[in-house]
Fold each of these.
Amino acid sequence: MTAPRPWSSDVEVLEVRRVRLVEVVAPGLSEDERLVMDRAWNAAVRANPSLFDGPVAASAGMVREEPDGVVLSWMRTTYRHFALCRVPGVTAWLPALFVTVVQPSDDGRVLVGRQSSWTAAPGRWQLPGGSIEPPAPHAPLDIAALRRNAVRELAEETGNDAAPDDLALWLVTRGVRGSVGVVFRAPSRPADWLLERHAALGASERAKGREPELERVRLVRAPEELSGLGGPCVDHLEPVVRRYAGMAPGGEERKPDGS
């Protein structure tokens, strides 16, 4: 496995060819912790009524599996549990497990988007992607399921209908608060086409009386351009863009491994 490079002192970035997922049981909450969680969640919903308490996968840790893979432990929970991370002094919160997609344009740039006001992170710039919906009880969560999650997020946020086999497993990131992301690379598309697809998606959503999840998208070539976007960026965005910008022009694309 390629060793993590110091793109950021706080975000770990690993290039991988294999990801193995292992389900573990989520730790229980004390009565006091549950009360704190419920209060925090109710306050978050009052501030943003679009939030919902559906099932979601949380990260339980990441271990390297030589020579070129990682083992990701995960737990079943609901979005309510993530509200605990906003409460000072509480240690029972769980880090997120998510998928994200590097969508290149044909001129070497990468598509990034700013989340709309109704989302859980309004105004934040990130790559297309999102949290992982856990499978049915006793069903496995595997790389194929992650690809399906990733293509669904890509379509919902950008209007780009890719197929799961189009996505190449590329990186795993671990952020400043322990959240783990599985990063896929999509095939390059014409820059104008990418912007037009998002514009068409936005027009369709607004015709239905709602804003798209990514209210705005941009194409960036280098991490230095992120500071000019006008808003905060998710912690893994800069190191992932930097890693992509450092790839050799015309280098061979890694093929999906199907593992």
Amino acid sequence: MFRGVWRYRGFVLGSVKREFQSKYRNSLFGALWTVLNPLAMITVYTVIFSEVMGSRLQGVDKAFAYSIYLCAGALTWGLFAEITTRAQTVFIENANLIKKLQFPRICLPIIVVLNACVNFAIIFGLFTLFLVWSGTFPGAVYLLLFPVLALQILFSIGLGMVLGVLNVFFRDVGQFFSILLQFWFWFTPIVYPVTALPKPIRELLVFNPMAAVIGAYQTILVHGRAPDWAGLLPIAILTVLCCMMGLLLFRKRSGEMVDEL
């Protein structure tokens, strides 16, 4: 399966390039919007929450601590939401391509991941420049973001592939997940700190795999220390299961998907 992806790497990279270009075609500022949009969001978070509302994190005495906490969660959640949301409809949206061309269908989820990573790299790169400019860059511990990011991407595409295959046969899956994603966002400590939750609800966060991932980003970027690796073990196990289930469903149902589409 993956040898086939390597043979079609030109198709994959070309698709990523075309999608990026088409997003800003006929736009006056073109790709500059990829910089302006996240820059506006980071500015709003910093000005509104840190300066106007005076939001502070308990035990952290930094001027931009809350805006960094918020950006660390919101930006990385955006990557998770983009991959899973697009992956659940990737086979349906490319139905004509699947019917007319012979190529490894697994290329489609990979294209979704690469597109999302390109967008994320631009946004998070700007956020990193903000950390350097504001004097809040965490130093060498910043490198610990990469294993957490890899874990998140694998979990996202594993879950996305399960949803994508099921959504071909049961269209309610996509509608249900869109609603679930909204509740999932607010059940994850992104806008609020964990300490703001009542203790009984705080204990339920153990059942939220994204809470540990977002918390790891926030620990690295806000507190400047290594995350709780043991706390990431449950989502690491869940990631393996999701990827295995996604590949198994894909291999068993890829032939039937063509007829269903």
Amino acid sequence: MGTYRKMSNTVVGLLFLAPALLFFVLFIGEPVVATLYLSFTKYNVITSAKWIGFDNIKHLFADDRLWLTYGNTLKYVLILTPMHAILGLLIALAVNRNIGKGWKYLYRTIFYFPVLATSAAVAVAWQFIFSKDFGILNFLLGKFGVSPIAWMQSPQWVYVAVAIYSFWKFIGNAFLYYLIGLQSIPAALYEAAEIDGANKTQRFFSITLPMLSPTIFFVLVTTLIGATQIFDEPYLITSGGPGDASRSVNMYIYEVAFQHHEMGYASTLSLSLFLIILCVTVFQFSISKKWVNYDRD
């Protein structure tokens, strides 16, 4: 009887898991296997895939344009990851102060609403904002005596433009994660520390940061992965220009696959990006044990 009941529970459990497993196999597992196979082929969608062995991999290491886009992507990672991780935390700390619930609701709405807006639609508005001759940003800077800046035409300023747009559009994600993490910290810990004579700075470094470390780790991992896979911001704001100055690896993969129709080589590029993200993520998890605190007792 016990064995039968155990088997019945297993079958029921598998039935509940079946939709998720089916989704994983169809939309994650199968594309991964197909990408791995296509990376060893020459395939342009129209004709059948032709096995070419390691030619795509050889092409990858000799592709100067690919390494240029990897360099651009590294710049995005170095700019966007600390920006979202640090500024998102500062905004969450400001909103989490002892202010009225109505103000907190208003601030949450203001900072998170851009995340819900359609990227393509708001990008059109930001292209006008960044316009050198007619943009409101240069107009406001001109009031302070700043000469017009070629936000989308200068290889130096294009990263600043992408960073500004990314901050406005996506800072709400990090902000919301931090805010939830802050609100889950027991108030009793702060009360006890205050009774012991700890000031605000001491309470922040002794309570807030350690208790918030799992959230900080989550934000760092997701933000770094998102920055490595960046596509929307440079594609919609700068189209990868000027030249290839702001073109990311994901944009290059898109171009190779859907403009040049080199699906085999695009699959190889995708695998290279996947392996890099995997290695970086594994490294992050390996060092997280040294600073992430999961003990809330």
